[in-house]
Amino acid sequence: AALIPFSRNDFLGKWYSMGFHSTNKTDEENFKKSHCSVAEYSASGDNGMTTKIQYTVDGKQINREVSYKLEDPAVGKYKVGAEGHPISYDISILCSDYKNFAVLYGCSDLADGHKSDFAMVLHRDRSHNYDNLMAQDDVKSCLQDKMKLAPSDMHKNPQE
């Protein structure tokens, strides 16, 4: 399910983080600690988005609001930043059918030459079965074609 052209309006709404992959071990540990991650995307300006993110780490609920500024509409690439947070990310919405799943890729240059990069598989339904999602042909082909990843490279992001 390619995104050409990307439709921000079809993408808006709630998305639940179902799975992730990161080559950065610090990112990976942070993702493993987070549960019940949900992001609600709303329109902002001509092509931007504002996102309210809620997740739980070690039993503590965390709320963040971030802004998405469109950089490349052809590929759904956004510059993402949070007020008071020194790091900004490039987020690309690689694939989506807009109704069920989306695959996102994020990266950022951190201090001391370190890099943060991650892939996330999202779904509209928090209770959707993770294994069934990862077995979908569109999800598998997106991970393989866009990220050179297999579903088995992903880690489940618990929604309970």
From TrEMBL:
<dbReference type="Pfam" id="PF00061">
    <property type="entry name" value="Lipocalin"/>
</dbReference>
<dbReference type="InterPro" id="IPR012674">
    <property type="entry name" value="Calycin"/>
</dbReference>
<feature type="domain" description="Lipocalin/cytosolic fatty-acid binding">
    <location>
        <begin position="13"/>
        <end position="126"/>
    </location>
</feature>
<dbReference type="InterPro" id="IPR000566">
    <property type="entry name" value="Lipocln_cytosolic_FA-bd_dom"/>
</dbReference>
<protein>
    <recommendedName>
        <fullName>Lipocalin/cytosolic fatty-acid binding domain-containing protein</fullName>
    </recommendedName>
</protein>
